[in-house]
Amino acid sequence: MENTKRFDEISIMRVLAMTMIVAFHSMCFYNGRWVKVNAITIPFWTKVSSFLDVVDLNMFVFISGYLYGYLYIYRNKYRHPSEVIVNKAVRLLLPYCFWGIPMVIIWPWNTWSNFFHGVGHLWFLLMLFEVFTLTVILQLLNAQRFKFTLWRGIALTVFGYVVWYVLSKYINPYDFLCVTRTFYYFPAFMIGYVCAKVRIGWLLPNWAYIGFPFVVFALFVFVWYPLPLPNEIIILVRTICAYIICIDLLIILSKSILSERSRAIIQKIEWLSMGLYIFNQMAMDIVFTTPVLHRWFELHWMIGPFILFLIGFFPPLLLSYVFNNCKFLRWSIGG
């Protein structure tokens, strides 16, 4: 981890996760989720988007946990809880409020109640801040060192899932302050942390190459075909598949060697990923609140997701570049 290549795998995974998120948003009009804009339901795109939805955000949180673990263990960073809270509040809560408040005011489907449950896609920023806060609480419970073993990681995964299930089912079904989703994604963060601690990129490379296609296929089956199992079990199996995919990719990509040009391109997109996430769905909202465009995409459902991907990726990427290069604006996208 001490060479210049140490984060190539993380950079690639972050760009991959961001690409999957944009692709997922490009299909939301066709999977019936966006009721706010009278979305339609196309079974094929519903299945594909469900596959992406299981992996993309779990991968993003996994990466966050991995980087946090690496910096905490090997770079002696984040030793003071206040350092974490202040840093993440500036990078996550500030953009959430800056963009979330106008979204409540402008879009007719949002209310002030939405602001406290996660405004649109910005709920992810609120949730991720709470994941870091929960991690800080665990740090405080360990007087000297934030210690994790594989078995503690497994125990926390089960604990997070159980808490998520109880909250979503009985206590907090409306997900006030995104607390319910925080516990669902918290295990991905902890698994990333454990992977950094044990330097898993140097372990079991053959297992990763062999196991990866099998896990992807298993997830495909659990997404594509209706199985006679309780929904909670299906969600749990899908989520575990997503964790294994993240670990496999980390191991496989840690062996990759990038050219300087490829590394520069990937790191540039990675640098712009926060702004890309924030602006991506805003671009989609503008498209579907324009009647003529709404009708066009409704009629052309076969190529619609591909066109929406281009709209949701490149203009937001350019806008993110502008914001990141302006010292008066970069704070609004966590820069």
What does this protein structure show overall?
- By secondary structure, the chain is an all-alpha fold.
- The model is unreliable at 1-5 (pLDDT under 50).
- The chain is globular, with a radius of gyration of 20 Å.
- It has helices at residues 8-27, 43-74, 81-106, 112-115, 123-141, 150-171, 179-197, 205-224, 231-253, 260-271, 273-288, 291-299, 304-324.
- Helix 2 packs across helix 9 (231-253).
- It contains 13 helices and no strands.
Summarize it.
The protein has 335 residues and is mostly helical.
State the distance separating the first and last CA atoms: 25 Å
Q: How many helices?
A: 13
**Pairing-aware structural class of the strands and helices?**
mainly alpha
Order of SSEs: HHHHHHHHHHHHH
Question: Main beta sheet, described?
Answer: none
| Percent of sequence in beta strands | under 5%
Radius of gyration computed on alpha carbons: 20 Å
Ranges with pLDDT <50 over ≥5 residues? 1-5
Please estimate the helix content: over 70%
What shape does the CA trace take?
Answer: globular
What's the average pLDDT?
87
> How many β-strand runs?
0
Features:
mainly alpha; disordered N terminus; single chain; 335 residues
Task: Describe the secondary structure blueprint for this structure.
Blueprint: H1 8-27, H2 43-74, H3 81-106, H4 112-115, H5 123-141, H6 150-171, H7 179-197, H8 205-224, H9 231-253, H10 260-271, H11 273-288, H12 291-299, H13 304-324
